[in-house]
TrEMBL record:
One Pfam family here: Nuc_sug_transp
The organism's place on the tree of life at top rank: Eukaryota
The protein's name in its UniProt record: Nucleotide-sugar transporter
Keyword Secreted: no
Record-level Gene Ontology MF annotations: pyrimidine nucleotide-sugar transmembrane transporter activity
Taxonomic source organism: Dillenia turbinata
Annotated Gene Ontology cellular component terms: Golgi membrane
Amino acid sequence: MDPTPLHLVMWPIEAKIPRFWRGHCAFFQGAPSNTVGILGGSSADLSMWKRKSIVTLSLTFLTSSQAILIVWSKRAGKYEYSVTTANFLVETLKCALSVAALIRIWGNEGVTEDNRLSTTLDEVSVYPIPAALYLIKNLLQYYIFAYVDAPGYQILKNLNIISTGVLYRIILKKKLSEIQWAAFVLLCVGCTTAQLNPSSDHVLQTPFQGWVMAIVMALLSGFAGVYTEAIIKKRPSRNINVQNFWLYVFGMVFNAIAILVQDFDAVVNKGFFHGYSFITILMILNHALSGIAVSMVMKYADNIVKVYATSVAMLLTAVVSVFLFGFHLSLAFFLGSTVVSVSVYLHSIGKLQR
């Protein structure tokens, strides 16, 4: 598609929009602040901008429904199915989707050095670390719902923004602005405020065990996310589906080990799919597509964009939970969510000023 006619039509409008707002709107989309340059640039630039927008918005939608589906899949307050088998199926589905995408690419472009599955030991040896971290984090996210509801989970999940920011600085050597660090502090305040429980003897809605699990999940998610981004961007020409394939293969291996260690007897006696329901299948599909979307964001944007896209999902989860689970939107939750939203806004400004 020739972008020139669009450029001629949009230029008078874009010229009237302050540069700041153009850059701010580009935060979630991953687009450069000079929107005029994109619209008047090459088709490749416009295609990349659209790709960033689609994968980030998709991640936001999928994440907002993730916690809801996990809670919905429980029966009488507990999981009738094996969470290790569910995680194994998630990794298997992600691996299958990556292979399907590669088959399509091979049919259109042929097999090249960047899209072939064959690799070296040095290249593939880095994937077990994030795969193992994601295994532990994914298992913890099921058990944390013994202490929190879906909106509370989304609030506490935002703690991984802190770990991601710190590890971003340490591992990838990328400098964060003072405004971004201030946004991190606000995020902590917002998460804590949203968890206040004035109608109970307990100060916080989530008990100590829930906070510990949330902090551990934040550290695991932050390290795994930044580490994976470093792997993916180390060889930018390498097809993302090849990189995903090897990550998910190790994910399948580790989840298979988890099944043997934790649920072997239950699987043998009751069957692999015991306790599965339609909601469970939807949850597995959601997790698989979310994983693909996360890797796409890391490839074409960055991990900071990923964690803030998931933060927006917090608000969507709260609204949906009101209708599905009768969740009560307290003043503390509203104020905490507002503070978290402000931190998102400040972080976007800080990113532009880096």
